[in-house]
Specification:
CATH topology of the largest domain: nicotinate phosphoribosyltransferase
CATH superfamily of the largest domain: nicotinate phosphoribosyltransferase
Number of helices: 11
CATH class of the largest domain: Alpha Beta
Order of helices and strands: HHHHEHEHEHEHEEEEEEEHHEH
Structural class: alpha/beta
Strand content: 15-25%
Distance between the termini: 45 Å
Oligomer: single chain
CATH architecture of the largest domain: Alpha-Beta Barrel
Strand order of the largest sheet: 1-2-3-4
Radius of gyration: 27 Å
Number of domains: 2
């Protein structure tokens, strides 16, 4: 939608990103605004060096220079180091250089060596350019001296599954006030067979506070699940918001805290373990009886 970039920035910040380069998102949601300049900014000057110097004047304390507009090593890094030395003489620090294309492993190593040789040890290296968790993990595994990663396109779009195959299934119907009957879809394809009734999802934690597993159970039977925490709560009722609206930073803290309770073996990129999800006894029984009621058979 037209607000996609804004909602994407908000979601990324909630999920743990430290800031956004989207100025409107920063203004609207009070997300910390971070970033560098564009290639077009460099190209608007006759000389790359002039663009770097002017940028350092305007942003004296947060100067991160994009060095790959023309030639990363022979032009961008040379000019960035020249500006960095000038800033150092003025008692300031070149915050970073940004690599946005090419062989990021090789370029980052060359850039780090050039910066260190110039005495710019505090200048950090930022990498961007269609990065995702797999590419970042591989760069880190290979020892790329990259301090910060700028992610965008692959973070907020579904490259592997660009469309969600959502299909409405009826699980319960109220024939009259207080009289609800369960419904479910039954098919030979288990992934398309739905679960009946109004449900709640409950989560258990181990002694260390890490997620141990989820249980899907009928909402009416959940009180019997001792030690489980319900995950679903009403957000709207009769067209009105019934859930307290919290500040964005408070929601972010809760999200990050929750993510930290996921076991490492579940979130690891290579060969992750499957997170355990089970059906509660009441739901399993309701599922069995509903199927038998449809077919007259025992499943």
């Amino acid at each position: 939608g037209p607000d996609g970039a804004l909602t994407a920035s908000r979601a990324a910040y909630l999920g743990g990103c430290m800031g956004t380069s989207n100025l409107e998102a920063g203004k609207k949601f009070h997300i910390p605004v971070k970033g560098t300049h564009a290639h077009s900014y460099v190209m608007s000057y006759r000389r790359e060096l002039d663009s770097f110097r002017r940028y350092a004047e305007v942003f004296p304390n947060t100067t991160i220079l994009l060095v790959d507009t023309y030639d990363t090593i022979r032009s961008g890094m040379v000019h960035a180091i020249e500006v960095g030395r000038e800033m150092k003489q003025q008692g300031r620090i070149l915050a970073g250089v940004r690599l946005d294309s090419g062989d990021l492993l090789t370029l980052s190593k060359q850039a780090r060596q050039m910066l260190d040789d110039a005495g710019l040890f505090e200048t950090r290296i930022v990498a961007s350019g269609d990065l995702d968790e797999y590419r970042i993990a591989e760069l880190k595994r290979q020892g790329a001296p990259i301090d910060l990663f700028g992610v965008g396109t692959r973070l907020v779009t579904g490259h592997e599954s660009p469309a969600i195959a959502g299909v409405y299934k009826l699980s319960s119907i109220e024939q009259s006030p207080g009289d609800s009957q369960m419904r479910m879809k039954v098919t030979d394809h288990t992934d398309k067979t739905s679960l009946p009734g109004i449900k709640q999802v409950y989560r258990s934690y181990d002694a260390d506070g890490m997620m141990a597993g989820d249980c899907i159970e009928l909402e009416s039977a959940g009180a019997d699940l001792e030690g489980f925490v319900p995950l679903l709560s009403p957000a709207l009722k009769d067209g009105y918001i019934v859930r307290p609206i919290q500040p964005l930073d408070e929601i972010r803290k809760q999200v990050i805290t929750s993510l930290q309770t996921i076991p490492a073996e579940v979130v690891r990129i290579q060969n992750p373990e499957r997170y355990p999800v089970s059906l509660g006894p009441a739901l399993a029984d309701a599922r069995k009886k509903t199927i038998e009621g449809y077919s007259g058979k025992t499943w």
